[in-house]
Design goal:
single chain; alpha/beta; seven-stranded mixed beta sheet; three-stranded antiparallel beta sheet; 13 helices
Length: 375
């Protein structure tokens, strides 16, 4: 029996989302930009999906732009704002525990002459508003802090962070990568004080290859691509309508409160079971998003334990899937030593997981600690 506990890497596409994608591919296959009936049918699907995403973010439809996923949305946010504000600003502030699509974009801006200021987390893995405000000044174009950390589940106080940053510079643009929070926490752009929000489809039971970016009305970004009128020229090119429509369908399936409570129960059960295993340490904060649980399993290297569990059809991650096994910059920034980081595993839940999955996980880790440590 399969025990899939790597939902922060990707989720299985829901039946409803898959059916919608198939229907659009085979029946509503017109180009949304075409002026004939088939094009209008497709355009209506596009509008419906945009509305579904906008509703979940407390936004207006015209503030939602579809992308290929969270990485493109994050890149568009950083490079788009940097290009728009390069004449009046020279610095940006990002947390040091961001997803690689933010960190690598920030490094590129640094190579291009921008003053990039990286804010480390405190001991609880969270970014503190005072630390961000301390790096913000009149030269700062953008503050980018993720809502939920993809490796530890730490929930960042982004609303307070953005409010404090604006006290230092009222003109600053505030961006949050909400890929891991979307569909799991209630997200309202105005309440967060966010000007830009990145989200992704394949973390919420939609297909890979689709995401969205919320851009507050009046905020100007310079496009990264050129060549068409689609998405108000911000992201030109014929829209991948089957993926977008499936994303919209997945948004309609959100049951945030019920799923959160179920994840919290599973997380608590997992922590209790893991505490009974000698040598297992919890790396996630106590108040982390319950969908994510980061642990260190003895002195067994992450990749070794991961494949040992895989042999028993238990699937977890050694950290961010995008890192492909590289050492975790997140755990390093939290002050954990190399050995603890090298033995870290990320367990991530979805609405489909059960206690049986946790039992299989803990049984596998227990056996792995007994056998692998002696190899």
């Amino acid at each position: 029996m399969e025990h899939y506990l790597d939902n922060s890497a990707t989720t299985a596409v829901s039946a409803a989302a898959a059916e919608k994608a198939f229907k659009v591919m085979t029946e509503i296959y017109g180009n949304p930009s075409s002026l004939h009936t088939k094009g209008i049918e497709a355009e209506n699907e596009l509008k419906s999906a945009r509305n579904a995403v906008a509703e979940k973010l407390g936004a207006q439809d015209e503030e939602i732009f579809f992308t290929s996923g969270g990485t493109e949305a994050n890149n568009l946010a950083l490079f788009g704002i940097a290009e728009a504000k390069k004449r009046t600003c020279k610095s940006i502030v990002v947390s040091s525990v961001e997803h690689s699509s933010v960190i690598e974009a920030a490094k590129r801006l640094e190579q291009n002459g921008w003053d990039v200021r990286y804010v480390p987390p405190r001991e609880n893995g969270k970014i503190h508003p005072d630390d961000v405000a301390g790096q913000t000044d009149g030269t700062t174009a953008l503050v980018s802090v993720m809502y939920v950390n993809n490796e530890t589940g730490a929930i960042m106080p982004v609303g307070e962070i953005f409010a404090r940053a604006r006290l230092k510079n009222p003109q600053i643009i505030c961006h949050t990568d909400a890929v891991q929070a979307f569909g799991k926490l209630e997200i309202k752009a105005k309440k967060l004080g966010a000007d830009i929000i990145s989200v992704s489809g394949h973390k919420v039971f939609a297909p890979k290859g689709v995401g969205a970016i919320y851009i507050k009305r009046g905020v100007r970004l310079v496009p990264r691509q050129y060549g068409g009128e689609q998405e108000k020229k911000l992201r030109p090119g014929t829209e991948p309508l089957p993926l977008i429509a499936a994303f919209g369908t997945a948004c309609g399936e959100f049951a945030i409160k019920e799923n959160y409570e179920a994840a919290a129960r599973l997380n608590s059960y997992a922590r209790e079971k893991l505490a009974q295993l000698g040598g297992v340490l919890i790396n996630s904060p106590d108040d982390a998003l319950p969908y994510v649980l980061n642990i260190t399993a003895g002195r067994v290297r992450s990749e070794t334990m991961l494949h040992f569990l895989e042999e028993r059809q238990v699937y977890v991650s050694s950290g961010s899937a995008c890192a492909k096994g590289k050492p975790s910059h997140v755990l390093s920034a939290m002050g954990f030593g190399r050995q603890r980081a090298d033995s870290a595993l990320r367990i991530s839940f979805s609405k489909h997981n059960t206690k049986e999955d946790i039992d299989a996980l803990c049984g596998g880790i227990e056996l792995g600690l007994k056998t692998l440590a002696h190899r």
